[in-house]
Recover the amino acids of this structure.
């Protein structure tokens, strides 16, 4: 069975778009969902999220001036389970369908166990709070604009995706796993960062699975955008 495949791009940490992701999943009505997160990350985050957030609360008691800095809020979101997984897995649970973590665990295995000693220190939080202040709306507006312009072909993508061996290996793992799963289900939706959804430039998940794609979407606060699947 060669099932339909849809790719939904997100802007990581942009939690204002979480409700839109839920509505788009309702609209696409998938038989299975794959998410750009590794099984290791899901399991490790599930066991550590409470401890991470408690450590951050204690640090902010000692460094109260950092409490409202936008970089500290981004850190707080980074320590939480990504909304892409929470929304997708909740939807799948209600509908009785599969939701699968398909990303490579290499980076998560290297980084996540170190966060207590790297990200969650007073020195790091003080350093974050010393950075120039940017309004959160402006921060995400810039990233939303970049995603929209790139996915619509308005932005130069000659150097995109990142020219690194890690990127290539990771996209290859994603491609193989997503492709294997979508062949087993009538309709599969993959949810992940918008860079993987870019349909041109070469090397992205979307470009590698282009012949089998039925739709590409970007979720934003209040709406989603759709893009051509052939360029």
């Amino acid at each position: 069975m060669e099932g339909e495949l849809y790719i939904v791009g997100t802007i990581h940490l942009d939690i204002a778009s979480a409700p839109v992701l839920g509505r788009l999943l309702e609209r696409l009505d998938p038989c299975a969902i794959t998410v750009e997160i590794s099984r290791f990350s899901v399991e490790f985050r599930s066991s550590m999220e409470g401890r991470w957030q408690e450590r951050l609360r204690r640090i902010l008691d000692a460094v109260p001036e950092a409490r409202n800095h936008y970089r500290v809020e981004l850190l707080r979101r980074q320590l939480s389970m990504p909304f892409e997984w929470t929304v997708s897995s909740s939807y799948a649970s209600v509908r009785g369908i599969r939701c699968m973590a398909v990303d490579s665990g290499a980076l998560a295995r290297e980084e996540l166990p170190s966060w207590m000693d790297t990200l969650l220190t007073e020195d790091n939080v003080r350093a974050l709070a010393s950075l120039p202040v940017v309004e959160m709306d402006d921060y995400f507006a810039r990233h939303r604009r970049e995603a929209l312009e790139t996915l619509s072909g308005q932005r130069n993508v000659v150097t995109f995706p990142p020219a690194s061996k890690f990127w290539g290996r990771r996209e290859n793992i994603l491609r193989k796993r997503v492709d294997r799963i979508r062949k087993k289900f009538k309709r599969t939706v993959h949810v992940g960062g918008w860079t993987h959804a870019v349909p041109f430039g070469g090397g992205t998940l979307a470009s590698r699975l282009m012949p089998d794609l039925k739709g590409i979407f970007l979720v934003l606060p209040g709406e989603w955008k759709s893009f051509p699947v052939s360029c």
